[in-house]
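During the no-cost extension, the postdoctoral fellow (Dr. R.K.) reprocessed legacy sequence entries with the updated structure-token encoder. One reprocessed record is reproduced below for audit purposes.
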Amino acid sequence: MKNLTHTDAAGRARMVEVASKGDTARTARAEGSITMNAHALDAIEGNVVSKGDVVGTARIAGIMAAKKTAELIPLCHPLMLTDVGVDIDIDRALPGLRVSAWASTRGPTGVEMEALTAVTVALLTIYDMAKALDRGMEISAVHLTEKRGGKSGDWQRDSVK
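Re-encoded structure tokens follow.
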């Protein structure tokens, strides 16, 4: 098993030192979904939810969250992001919404947590805005789909378990 990088010799949590690492272009992508009843999905699609534009608001919330990741996750480094995006698609087969996000930077550490945070906060925003229509909504399958750059190289998920 690999040694954990976020603990010291005594097992205490610590932030990883990255000053000696070279800057490289880095990108990460993540996905997740939220299931809901057909009535809630129809209201979101028709943009008639009383709290406003669910998809637009969730997209902005995800982007904002990616920029705040280091404030939310204790051992994350603050990063200068060069690109962040969130896509939200209706999936009638769920029924619900699928959220995907990406984050990019040029620096000494990756942006996986930023992409995952963007997806998670976008999904939470959808729940918050539509909970009056369906309190039984379920957020699931939040996962990293790929990362590019850095010492460990590129990685891509084969399939979701």
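The first strand starts at residue 24 and ends at 35. The chain has one domain: 24-146. The remaining legacy entries will be reprocessed before the final report is submitted.
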